[in-house]
Amino acid sequence: MKNRLRPYYPLLPVFAAYLVLFLVGRNVTGMWQLAATLVFYCALGQAFNIFLGMTGYVDFGYVAFLGIGTYGMATAITGLAGYPQLGLGIVAIGFILAIVMATLLSMAVGAVALRLRGAYFAIATIGVNEGFRYLIEGANLWNGSSGMIFTAQLNEILGRDLSSRIMTFWADVMVLFIAAAAAVVTLLYMKSKIGYALTALREDEDAAKVMGINVTKYKIIAFITSASFAGTVGAASWALKTPYVFPPEVFEIHYTIEAIIIVMLGGAGTMLGPVVGALIYGISKYYLSIFLPGFQLFIFALVIIFIIVMFPEGVVGVIKGKTRNTAIAPYIM
Amino acid sequence: MFLEQLSGNLVQGVVLGSVYGMATMGLSLIFGVLKVVNVGHGAFVMVGAFVALFFFNTLGLNPIFAIPAAFAVGIALGLTFYYAAIRKLLHAPELATLLATFSAGVLLEETIKMIFGSEFRGYNWDVGNIDLVFTALPMSKILAALGSVLIAVLLYVWFKRTRAGSAMRSVVEDSQGARVCGINVDGVYAMSFALGIGLTVASGVLLTMFIPVGINPYMGGGYTLKAFVIAVLGGLSSPYGAFFGGLVFGLIENTSYTVFALIPGVEPFALTRFLSFLILLIILLIRPTGIIKAK
Fold this sequence. Notes:
The structure holds 2 protein chains of 2 kinds. Chain A has one domain: Orthogonal Bundle (ABC transporter involved in vitamin B12 uptake, BtuC), CATH 1.10.3470. In chain A, 74% of the residues lie in helices and 1% in strands. Chain A has 15 helices and 2 strands. Chain A has a two-stranded antiparallel sheet with strand order 1-2. Chain B is mostly helical. Classes of the chains: A mainly alpha, B mainly alpha. Chains A and B meet through helix 5, helix 12 and helix 14 of A and helix 3, helix 4, helix 9 and helix 11 of B.
């Protein structure tokens, strides 16, 4: 009889990597910050991969969803600061608001952009980030360009000890859980009709349409899922970790670049790719900033051109090709 | 008072718009011929701005001389980048060229940052003012606008009257057919890409007349977005469409700034930039082939 758990084997190396990160960060002194950064990159990569990896569409405005998630958490904390009886519930409400706001924004963007294909899609999304940032600054939404600072409110509701525990420890653990959840969702999508539809779409959108696949529907599913994960990442790793929001910081296009590098380096559309990409990118960035400060982006831009030209399938794509029909094949996807 | 301000802004809009138009022709040319979207467009504009800065501040030369120099720098960059990456990616999924041009933009930004540093710089080329009844315009801006029109006309003539120009047009029309007729399609691709980048870098010189202290390695991002709006206004694949799109966009930008400034409690500059994004989405939604019909 076929092993019924076998389809879930690809989750093992992903979870193992997360566990190792957590244990190293916990037990080796001075490593928690690096581990937390790596976990953030893993979560960013996993979330971005759900859309870029599965559909082959590049969303250049991706960081807008992280930004809006940050604002979701900020709104919950500042808006409900008068109800200290909510306690930790306020964090839960913040996450819900982050997801709702990211979903709404992604629906608005998707309604326009997902009707477009390829180059036109990329053009439509490249402005999302800037456009949204300038809307907040220009129309003075959420305090406009002066941003929001809510450390005091967080201290007031949760008490000084708990809120500083959240900032230094629990926020990172939450990002770890989000990364794990994104991996599970990726696997479920890949194994379901959604994954097959998106694979067909990525290979040949016209053929997929002719075969009767509702491509727009599946694109929207992947887009919204990816965006709402980004919203939770923003809420946890920005709003909870450093309780302030400034539009130029949270809508920094830099993070979109990092997400693209991570996914492409590891292998777009693979399960393990974002984790491998995040680890390679995060660790090399960390050491480059020590030994060659200021050169990281220069080097990574060269690396990404090299990857696209030489091996567009990424590290995991190459490993997958090499290990086909071997004992470890079921673990790599 | 308001009308005076508005008409002043309209004139400024036409002047700025013609430079915007010229700054987008390269983007449209590359998309028209190669079907490649240059996502790093703004970074190439930025390189041109630094060429102008270098000519004016370091060599002490008139920025007009920087235009051919910037064009040459652009041709060299374009050819290098085409043969190093783009050529191998033409048949890959769209994702590949998008990411490659994007990374090329980052690479340029970082290179310029290493050479010149990341602080804001600028130069002031003072060649007097022209007084109109309702507004005063610096002569340097007028020269930049005239330069843009001249370059656009030269490109038009080159397209219509030279063999290379007609080869390029035939590839736009039907690259398979052009190949059958014995046109070196790969050569045309390389030439178009180099020409497109050359125009883009040269436009950076003209743009510096409008930003006295705004030259910085990361200044390009805003221009990428504007260039997309303009290119889409003009139909994305036609350089002339792009030129007229630039005029329209310059007018919209200046008018909306005047109008937004009347609303209390908002930041007109930021809202103008939001508006350009909104226009982009609306045009893509209703007429992705462009509002302006170019022949």
